Amino acid sequence: MKKVLPAILLACLSGLFVLPARAQHTAAVAPAVKTAYGSVTGIIEKSGVLAYKGIPYAAPPVGNLRWQPPQPPAAWTGIHKADHFGPRTMQAPIFGDMNFRSDGMSEDCLYLNVWAPARKSSKLLPVLVYFYGGGFVAGDGSEPRYDGESMARKGIISLTVNYRLGVFGFFSHPGLTKESPAHASGNYGLMDQWAALKWVKENIAAFGGDPKRVTIAGESAGSIAVSAQMASPLAKDLFAGAIGESGSVLGALSAVPLAKGEAAGVEFAKSIGAGSLQELRALPADSLLQAATRFGAFRFPVTVDGYFFTKDPYQVYAAGEQAHVPLLAGWNSQEMGYQAILGNQPLTKENFEKAVRKLYSNAALADSMLQLYNPATDADVEQVATDLASDRFISFSTWKWIDDHVKTSGEPVFRYLFSRPRPAMNASMGNAAPGLAGGVIRDKKATAAKPPAAKGAVHSAEIEYAMGNLSSNKVYNWQPDDYKVSAIMQAYFANFVKNADPNGPGLPKWPAITGTDNVPVMHIDVHTRMEPEQHRARYLFLDRQRERAH
Questions:
Q1: Which helix (H) or strand (E) covers residue 523, if one does?
Q2: Residues 349-377: what's their mean pLDDT?
């Protein structure tokens, strides 16, 4: 029987592979830039933006460098043509909303992409480094929704970064821990991001960027990564601001003790009959990927390894030991559908109560949850069940991150709720069906009726709006109101990258959070507006339950 991945992970985070042929570039050549490792040329996009794609920021993590912290890239002579995206990291076709422009798939995957404004500024410009989502098992910096051209047109040096995923990026094992000088293993994907940030600090000025004004950002697993970089003593001094879209390491894909990660690694090695690290490293990348997919793509967790994380991130944030930088973060209005609670049961109060009591077998706990998630009528069940599903999936973790940072950082924090539903799909999509993460699975044989359109903003729906990339997604029939919402959201993000403050001319005023009472939340939609926080009691209760279980 085919295994079904847990819904909380499937919705997490984004691709059924779409493999376009490598583009034939006829664009003009962008000026050469000298990095610490050699010179690169790129291309000039039609907008005039300079794009440098597929720049190696670390040595290929192959052979004996498999499951090692990233090493500096080898220097080169001559000119490296950074005119196309590098290979994407090894990954299985897990999600349905990823469209890759990468040069195939390879274990040799540690490349980044830089977009710079057409006109060189007399002053160094702010920098945005974006980490893709995908549950730490999928994703790529070539995805059009993350493209940095639109942000570059707003005067920002924009980057996307490839990092190792799944068994390649998060495999822990006692043997690896023993051979490590830091006595640690796992978290290689997070260390890749750290290496990229070091590369940015060392090289971004050559592209016109200010290494002292770097903002890191990401969605879903990318957002979790941002919160993780903030909690790591290795990385926390390499950036000046952070943006998180749906998710944090404080409750979503959270770090587990190293021993637990090692145990999963030992179990995996036994499952494929590998008796040594030498045997594991000798496996071809394709074979290793296939074996890990059979074992379970999500079974290689982030760990408190003692190196990247010297403490549990919960402890880091509680003690105020995270990076003290301005933070802009939030989530979407429908991160998970009500079906995660009710399945296909009719939307009634009675069915909702039964479902909650099934989820929470402790009667007292179920009673408390039903007091906090309490639909007044059958008509309210869909929204309340959606709220509960979303909070259990990823919304609570984002709230926790925001709340702790407000309490312990002393830095400005801005919170949003994105609630613009995607429009109808284009008729030209034929039998395309929405994916679990709000994306699309293209299947010429699909005959099932399309499900009704989401009433809220599903997980990952905000990315194209925030990055100014609606036109890159041909699946949906974008309307003028969608472009209106995108203009507002991208302006907020761009202002934050430039000034550590999202506010600017023509935008609704967005105050920073100053305490835990009447927390301001910017509701981003066609009628963008500020409203006070709702349902704080829910999150406080969930946090208390987490503390008891942690």
A1: strand 520-524
A2: 97
Contact between residue 249 and residue 151 where contact means Cβ atoms under 8 Å apart: no
pTM of the model: 0.93
Which residues share a beta bridge with 52?
114
Instruction: Determine whether 30 is exposed, middle or buried from the number of CB atoms within 10 Å of its CB (0-12, 13-18, 19+).
Output: buried
Distance, CA of 102 to CA of 141 (rounded, Å): 8
Q: Give the integer Cα–Cα distance in Å for 295 and 274.
A: 14
409: left (phi over 0), alpha (psi -120 to 50) or beta: alpha
pLDDT tens digits, one per residue of 328-342: 999 999 999 999 999
Question: What is the spatial distance between Cα 318 and Cα 32, in angstroms, rounded to a whole number?
Answer: 46
Query: Do the strands 157-161 and 111-116 form a parallel or antiparallel pair, or are they unpaired?
Result: antiparallel
What pLDDT does residue 454 have?
Answer: 76
Distance CA 378, CA 375 (A): 7
Q: Would strands 520-524 and 529-532 be described as parallel, antiparallel, or unpaired?
A: antiparallel
Q: What is the DSSP letter of 255?
A: -
* One-letter amino acid for residue 31 of the chain: P
Segment 462-481 mean pLDDT: 97
Q: Is the pLDDT of residue 11 over 50?
A: no
> What is the 3 state secondary structure string of 148-204?
CHHHHCCCCEEEEECCCCHHHHHCCCHHHHHHCCCCCCCCHHHHHHHHHHHHHHHHH
CB of 545 within 8 A of CB of 537?
no
202-260 per-position pLDDT tens digit: 999 999 999 999 999 999 999 999 999 999 999 999 999 999 999 999 999 999 999 99
Across 348-446, the runs of DSSP E, i.e. the strands, are 413-418, 433-434, 440-441
